Structure formats: C-alpha cells, structure tokens
Amino acid sequence: MTRIWRFSGCGASSRLTELSDRRMETVRRLSINQYTVRNWTIPQLLEGCAAEQIPYVSLWRDKVAETGLDETVKLLGDTGIKVSSLCRGGFFPAATLDQQSRNLEENQRAVDEARVVGAEVLVLVCGGIANHNLDRSREMVVEGVDRLLPYAEQAGVKLGIEPLHPMFAADRSVIVSLREANAISELFKSRNLGVVIDVYHVWWDPTVYSEIARASGSIFGFHVNDWIVPLPDLLNGRGMMGDGVIEIRRLREAVTAAGYDGPVEVEIFNEKLWQLPGGELLRLIKERFLRDV
Amino acid sequence: MTRIWRFSGCGASSRLTELSDRRMETVRRLSINQYTVRNWTIPQLLEGCAAEQIPYVSLWRDKVAETGLDETVKLLGDTGIKVSSLCRGGFFPAATLDQQSRNLEENQRAVDEARVVGAEVLVLVCGGIANHNLDRSREMVVEGVDRLLPYAEQAGVKLGIEPLHPMFAADRSVIVSLREANAISELFKSRNLGVVIDVYHVWWDPTVYSEIARASGSIFGFHVNDWIVPLPDLLNGRGMMGDGVIEIRRLREAVTAAGYDGPVEVEIFNEKLWQLPGGELLRLIKERFLRDV
Predict the structure, then answer these.
(1) With a cut of 70, which residues of chain A have pLDDT below it?
(2) What is the share, in percent, of chain B residues with pLDDT greater than 70?
(3) Cis (ω within 30 of 0) for the bond into B6?
(4) How much is the pLDDT for A233?
(5) What burial letters (b/e) apply to A159-193, b meaning 16+ CB within 10 Å?
(6) Which of A195, B14, B223, B264 is least buried, going by the fewest C-beta atoms within 10 A?
C-alpha cells in the first residue's frame, strides 16, 4: 500500500480530504483500463493518472509493445502506479493444431509480460467459435487453460477467465457466463486461476449473484461501466457508469461480500468518450466512480 | 391437414415432387414471419406464400390492424394459409399500476385477435426493465402472465413465452434464457402456457439442449434464422439460415426430439433482405430452409 499512500499523502486535493473514509477507500481501488482513454500512449496514461491520483491502470499488450516493455516498467516505477491487469491472453479455439500451438506460445509471452509489469492478473478472453463447432470450441478453452496454467504458476502470474456477453459468443468468447467461468476455474483448483467479472458482460444474468458468491476466493478482477439504451454499438458503445441500466453498486457490493478487495477497473469502449480530452475524461470517471460504483 | 394437402395436391412443382418424404414434411411446416418480408401487406404476404405453396404465416398486430381483422380472416380462408403465431403480447414490466392495467387490456385484445385469426400461439415478448429494477421487472412478468392466463384459457389461446437474447434485456425482454421461460411455464402448469424457441435468442446458451428437453410438451413455436459475423445490427442484422454460426439443424433436431412437430417460422429482420423483391426472398428462404433447417 506504500505507493498508494504516496498519492494521498503528497497531493490530496481539498475535495478528496473531505471525502468519507469509504469514499477514500473507493478511490484507492480505482484503475483505468487503457482503452478507456484509447488515444493515449502509456506515458500519457501514466502521467494523466498520476495527476489525478489514480493508483492503478490496466494495460494492453499492443500499447506495451508500442512504448516498449522496459520503458513501461521504468515509467511505472517512476510514477508508482500499479498494474491491475494486462489485456489479454486467451483466444484458445483454433482451426488447426498448428494454430493451437502458436496460440500457446503467444499466451506464454503474455504471461511473461504480465510478470514483468507486475500485473495482478492476466485477463483471458477465451476466443470465439472455431470450425463452426461451439461445443468443441468450449472444450478447446479448457484444453488451452490446461496447457497455459503450469507456465503461469511457474511465473507466479494469475490467470483470470473473463466471461463475455453472449453477443460476443461467435467471435470473441464462447465462455458467456460466470457460471461457465467458475466451472473451469473449479476444475483446476489452482491459486493461479480465477475469474474476472465485468458488469457489462454479466449484469443480465439471473444467476449472477449466486455465481459471484460461488466465485468467492477466486475473483481476480472487477470491471465497471454501463449498458446504455439504445446501445450505440456492440463493441464500442459501452456507457459511463450512471448512464445506463446496470445496477453497478449492487454488483460491487456482491463482489465485495464475496471477499474481493482489489482494484476496480473502469473499462469503457465508447466512440464519444474517446473524443474527450483525456484529463477531462479521467475527472468524469472519478466523479461517477464515487457516485455510482 | 386438409388445407396443407390442398397446396401439395393442386400445384406441386416438379422440384417439390422430387423431394424426399422428409423434405416434403419439412416444407409442410414452413411459416413465414411477416416481418421477414416487412414491406408486404397481409394481402401481398398471403398471395406470395400461396404462390410458393408455403402453408403458414406469422402475423403482426400492426399489420393486422392495417388490413383489418375481418379482411385478414377472409383472406386466410380464401388462400387456406394458416397462422402459426401472432406477434405479440407481453411487455409486462410497467412503471406504474395504471400502466400495468393498460398493458393487461392490450394483452387481452391480443388474445382476442389470436383467437379470431386462429393463431397456434400468441407470442409473448416479456418487456424490458421498469424503474431501474431488474429483479422486480422479472417479478412483474410472472404477475402479468398470472393475470393474462385465465383470459387466454377462456379464449382457448396458447401463450408462448419467448426468451430474447440477453442483449435485449434492458429494453425488450428481461426473460433472457430458456431456463427462465421454462421456470415460468412450469410455475403455472397450464396447457395454455408454454415457450417459443428462436435460435437467434438461445443458440449461445450452454444449457440450451437440456432446456429444450425440459420444455418437452410445452414448446409452442420454433423460429429459425442465423447469427452472422460481424453482426450488422442488434435488431435488424439477423441472417438468412446458412449464412452464420448457429447450429440450426442440431437445434431443430433437439426440438423435434422434445416432441415439437408444429410449424417452423422463418423470422429474419434484415435491412438488406428487405430490399429484395418478396417473391425472390421467399424462394431463397425455401432453398435455405430445405438445406439448413
């Protein structure tokens, strides 16, 4: 917690000092997913978050490659900002055995990067349908986790299976519910395997609260945003917290009740918000994070 | 079956007579949902289907109102085409008690129309979230069914709960899985209450095959189309059978194994297909129906 206290200690604004303990605690868990501020490079993101006393970021591998792994690590050290997660591994279903092998190697590189940047979890987006066979694709996810997990355990990196919304079943993740993610997680009984819960993907599910409770002890991440009506776009139409229908606070409380006290990531892909200046967007996020999460 | 045989008997094309028994049986179950050929009025739809020896249509209430109920009944009698379903009742969650009462009256009118046109089922699209409360909205669906069911029983009309895809949970149906639809259906134990299964809404669900088996005896409708990648639009981006990832044949076989032998509706809302001449679209549907359903 040393680094986080450094933020609160050296630059707390009068607004922040007026906040209740609960609210201070909340801000201390805030993480900005890099693609929420898509146009920023890693140096810009870390500088922007430092200015706003935001203690965590979630990084994407393409952005890490752009800045360079060593430079990223150096900047993280300079700013004291921590990495809540690295996006992403996964995409296990493959049309051929050769493709499956290449996927494994790519996932091992992702584990290495997660270790180097000190990410609390490597997010697994499991991948869509291969060879027009949904059941077989789901089996390939289990096989993929089975092959990757020993490597992650060796590296001391946690893998978090993130179920995506069913509307992504075809092309992004055949794992579409927390129930399935929990089932895979339980299959392996490893301290390095758990789930990542994003409200956008799971809010609609009648079993979500029982599945959150079931995930107790293996929740490795919690992501917030909102579902706006009408949805502007499947992929890039996510809303700012408070602008939609998701009962975010209730879900956050359920996740807390299940024992999760790690960073809370704001992950919003939204064409309109990407047009805002990054600093302005961060201030809006903090405001909504305090009010609605 | 008299009316259907009339089609096969008096105008079977050489193509049709060459078909195997199974295929003949398949075409005899084909129904065209009116919004698949959106630009057509009811007279056009019935004439078009008669020309293509398609024995069933699914009608929408706004189109029935446009043509008039009496005229619709007369045209149905003239052509011998039967009504697989009427779209739609439902939309139970309401912000106020007053709105809830008005919904009930509207649903009763829908039951009356379903009776008059001889629809095999009145499709219930259950409605989205009222008052930002998902759980309460789901309760209001059960309450709504509870109030409407005696009226439907009296009228001899079957009500079919159609779970919609979770991406419609906010604004169209808080009932997003066959599991929930079955649970409501089982709650009432009425021969007039069952489920309607549309492949577009349920294909992604890991429990879909067990839930289809569970629904045995209370499947009141089966709808086909496809999920294309990338999806052009949530609402009006459905695909023609064979153009997407849904394992339609497997789902159809599961529904058949569960004892359903009623009409199979083609329900495709697609901007591009709406631009085709209606007759051409019907011929394409028949071709794909035989090949992929």
Answers:
(1) 1-26
(2) 91
(3) no
(4) 87
(5) bbbbbbbbbbbbbbbbbbbbbbbbbbbeebebebb
(6) B14
Q: Give A99 to chain B, closest Cα distance, Å.
A: 20
CB-CB under 8 Å, A206 with B177: yes
DSSP state letter for A35: G
Are B165 and A169 inside 8 Å of each other by CB? no
* pLDDT per residue as tens digits for the range B36-55: 999 999 999 999 999 999 99
Angstrom CA distances, A184 to A159, A170, A173, A205, B274, stand at 12, 19, 14, 18, 43
Paired sense of beta strands B219-224 and B30-33, if any: unpaired
CB atoms closer than 10 angstroms to residue B271? 12
CB B52 within 8 A of CB B282: yes
Three-state secondary-structure class, residue A177: coil
What ipTM does this complex have? 0.91
3-state secondary structure of A134: helix
Binary contact (B132, A206; C-beta < 8 A): no
CB contact under 8 A, A229 and B171: yes
Overall size of chain B counted in residues: 293
Residue of A137, A139, A167, A171 to mutate when probing chain B, most B C-beta within 10 A? A167
CATH topology of domain B34-292: TIM Barrel (3.20.20)
* Structure confidence by residue, pLDDT tens digits, A105-126: 999 999 999 999 999 999 999 9
CATH T-level assignment (fold) for domain A27-292: TIM Barrel (3.20.20)
Closest CB to B167 among A167, A171, A247: A167
Q: What is the domain partition of chain B in residue ranges?
A: 34-292
Q: Do A206 and B138 make contact, defined as CB atoms within 8 angstroms?
A: yes
- Return the H-helix or E-strand segment holding B159: strand B159-161
Q: What is the DSSP string of B210-253?
A: HHHHHTTT-EEEEEE-B--SS-S-TTTB-B-TTSSS--HHHHHH
The span from the CA of B101 to the CA of B272, in Å, is 39
